[in-house]
Amino acid sequence: MLFDRVALQPVQTLFGTAYSPANGNLSFAQNAVEQLTGDSNLIGVRSRATVSRPFTRVKAIEAAANEKFQSEIKQLEDNASESQRKINELQQQKKDKDQRFILSPEQQSELANLRKQEIETRKHLKQVQKDLRKEVVSLQTTVKWVNILAVPIAVMASGIVIAVVKRRKTSAK
Description:
elongated; mainly alpha; 5 helices
């Protein structure tokens, strides 16, 4: 596994023969030794993490979409909590000890209206949150397809340009 012919590839340079890793066997062996020694200093010397560059432009577009919907979401949540508070107030009102569980017809109709309003508000809130998620997913899908298709299109375009230039050079001769 660590034999030179398996783990290293000889490369001829001006200064002699140099060796470059042919596979990950040497790294694997080094990591195994570090883990088996149990010394966290050895493990911490080499970074194993990959460098992650966030898509700042995509994050900015997502933040703009969040901001666009956030005010409406906040307003709907406030409306729902206000409706719930009014419902609780109506249910807490006591006329006297004998009628504390009986609501007047006005209170019953107001309670029904408040509950209906709360249900509508929550439905609208769910729809707004769904639209926000849909917009973010749409943006992520667009970026993914652009990344997938950009390189092949660039390679095809450069190939066509090179072919046209070569054809013009050969036809001019």
